Amino acid sequence: MEATGQHPAVNQYSEATPVPSQTSGTANELAQIGSFSFGHLAAMWERDYVERVVGGKALVAASTKQKYRNHLHNHILPRWAGTPIGQFRAKEVLDWLQEESGSWYMMTDLRNIMSGIFTKAQEWEVLPDTFANPIKRVKLPKKWLVYERRILTEEQTVRVLGLMQDPHRLISELCLATGARISELTGLQIKHVGVQCRYIRIEQRNWRGNIDSPKTERSKRTLTLGSLDGRLKLWIDALKDNKPEAWVFPQHDIRKPMWDSGARAALKDAAKAEKCDFPGFGLHSLRRANITWRQEVGGSSIEASQIAGHASTKMTEEYTVVQLNRQEQLTRRIQEKLSEAAGRINGPEVTATAPAQNLSTIDQKCLALEPVRSNECDGSTDQQGRRCFRNPVLLSSL
Asked: Are 359 and 320 in contact (CB under 8 A)?
């Protein structure tokens, strides 16, 4: 639900409301500060940080600002606005987070916003350093996912894209080929497209018509298009306006960039038509597929992270889906190395791996439900007393 205004409990906190001043932290002074209501700090944080514009530029991106305000006014303030800051208890906050939140990520967002309000108050010397941030003691439970991390198979992806029409198909193909975020693609202008459309420069993003800097500094990057260069060139050549400042994907009013909702709906409808839709599937699933497949074809995790514009390789790890066929390939490569070693010991006629199979014919569902069997190892020795394998052995149980 979108926040439409300040919560009633905060309307009383005007800009003229006094705030606690920085003190030396004696017992009496801290007790006085502890009686100060959380709503006052929240109002100051929202006014002087979330809504603040400096030099014509907002301190907080529009998408982040909306998330902060929604969580603040729809969840946090209705419960905590009138609570004295000295009466916060970690157990009460944790119990509330678990009841209020629909996902682990929402729980994390709520906790971080509340903690950030206290932290900003200390940075601004509104609260003394001796005042312990009570939210830092709130330890969240183990992370869980609302939706399973999944991607379509290559065949499913081709069929789904084949049902779509431009510009939604081209946008989806660009998400898949480059790993770009949808907000980065809808924020593209002609000036961001390189020579002969061979690459694009990610310099901004479009969030519901609001043009802002990319999500992180590392998100500013150049992405090559591979075989999509011709498709993008044909698209741009056919635009009514292809001047440098024009949008690559405009609305009917060509002065405005396209929103992401149309492409999301088109992709979802195509997946449903192919009967391969699943909860959580969308354009971000194509970005996840790009990161996964880029590593499968030989790219390192560092390369995948930089191309994806992730702040760290840890985030890339969360995006990567190790598919069963990929596991099978890697397992067999290990077994081939062992087979070669056994051949050097026992002779070329001896093998330590099962015959190769055509992985493209392996049914992933069956592979997931039925573990690959291990053959028994013959423990006999040859004439030189060396251990040998008389039967092919699949060493997946080691």
From this structure: no
pLDDT tens digits along 201-247: 999 999 888 999 888 888 999 999 999 999 999 999 999 999 999 99
> Which residues, in sequence order, are bridge partners of residue 193?
200
The distance of Cα 239 from the centroid of its chain, to the nearest Å, equals 32
Kindly report whether the global pTM for this prediction surpasses the value 0.70.
no
DSSP reduced 3-state for 249: coil
Whether the pLDDT of residue 77 is over 60: the answer is yes
Q: CA 88 to CA 102: how far, in whole Å?
A: 22
Q: Which helix (H) or strand (E) holds 329?
A: helix 324-346
Return the exposure string of 246-256: e unless at least 16 CB atoms fall within 10 Å of the residue's CB, then b: bbbbbeeeeee
* Close Cβ partners of 267 (under 8 Å, ≥ 6 residues apart): 160, 164, 168, 172, 282, 283, 286
Whether 76 has a pLDDT exceeding 70, the answer reads: yes
CA atoms within 13 Å, Cβ hemisphere of 170: 16
Bridge-based pairing of strands 210-212 and 199-202 is unpaired
Phi/psi of residue 4, nearest 5 degrees: -105, -10
pLDDT mean over 154-180: 95
What 3 state SS string does 10-57 have? HHCCCCCCCCCCCCCCCHHHHHHHHCCEHHHHHHHHHHHHHCCEECCE
Calculate the CA dihedral of residues 43, 49, 53, 58 and round it to 10 degrees.
-120
Cβ atoms < 10 Å from Cβ of 73: 23
Q: Hey, what domains does the chain have and what are their CATH numbers? A: 8-137 (1.10.150.130), 154-319 (1.10.443.10), 324-397 (no CATH)
What integer pLDDT is reported at residue 240 of this predicted model? 94
pLDDT digits (tens, 9 = 90+) for 267-305: 999 999 999 999 999 999 999 999 999 988 888 888 888
